[in-house]
Amino acid sequence: MWDFIQDEIFGMKWLNRLIGSLLNACGLDTESKLGGSLQFFIYDMIKIMVLLGVLIFVITYIQSYFPPERPKKILGRFHGIGANCIAALLGTITPFCSCSSIPLFMGFTSAGLPLGVTFSFLISSPMVDLGSLILLMSIFGWKVAVVYVVVGLVIAVAGGTLIEKLHLEDQVEEFIRNGKSIDTPQNELTKRDRMKYAWKQVAETAKKVLPYIIVGVGIGAIIHNWIPEEWVVKVLGTGNPFGVIIATICGIPMYADIFGCIPIAEALVAKGAKLGVVLAFMMGVITLSLPSMIMLKKAIKPKLLGIFIAICTVGIILVGYFFNLIQNYII
């Protein structure tokens, strides 16, 4: 039953078979490079957009019950590492890219929450969200998805705790430290209002991420059908001990979210790349993308930004090697 849910509902394998049959009926050989690329592209585009729509709708509907003031109040009740854990968990139900998380991070910091707590949120929000859980489950299985979420939360909690211990509050820009958070009363929304709001967010998010999904799926289709397997194995396979480091560094200059990275990850693993290498690339893209770092630099000073990047980079590399070690046990 679980295999059916994972393959046919989350993975939508039935859709892949249907698209293959339709392309064959149109006279296109799906075993050829061109036909295989087209099948991969159509299947992944439809699958990701459907999962995106469902996830955004459900998460946004839930978030309508949690206005920005409520997470601040929740976090304010906890102290020490417990607050870091709660912040990391709250990050899992926030938007899907780091650029969306930074304004929330700034708001939490202005509200007077401990710096380490806000950084635990900032790390976990793009790296470990419900989207990553569902999409990873649809492709790599529940074991990979669960382990990924757990280690992502560990990085978020450990990173936030370390930043807290370093006492770097003076490295936050003054306009953030002196900002005031004003609790605004929330109008009571009806279920119909929440439904409309959720659908609106689905449309707006889909419009925003569609270009990145098209690019990601396109790259995945090229890798899947046109790049020789031995090339991928040589650079990102077991034979290259630096594959994780290379993948992490290559991912940083890019900007995409989990939905744009998954097709590339899927194609690379199918070509023989190690799981840890692929996940390190994906985490580098969604956590340390260059546009996000530029935005974050406006809120914190270079020293703190450098420490944040170093913590995330080291954590991602360690996680990559960890997944390489356990790959045979979870796939």
UniProtKB/TrEMBL annotation:
Bilayer-crossing regions: 40-62, 102-122, 134-158, 209-227, 239-265, 277-296, 303-323
Mitochondrion as UniProt keyword: no
Membrane topology: Multi-pass membrane protein
Record key words, sorted: Cell membrane, Membrane, Transmembrane, Transmembrane helix
Subcellular location: Cell membrane
Protein family per UniProt: Belongs to the UPF0718 family.
Protein's name in the database: Membrane protein
The organism of origin for this protein: Ruminococcus flavefaciens 007c
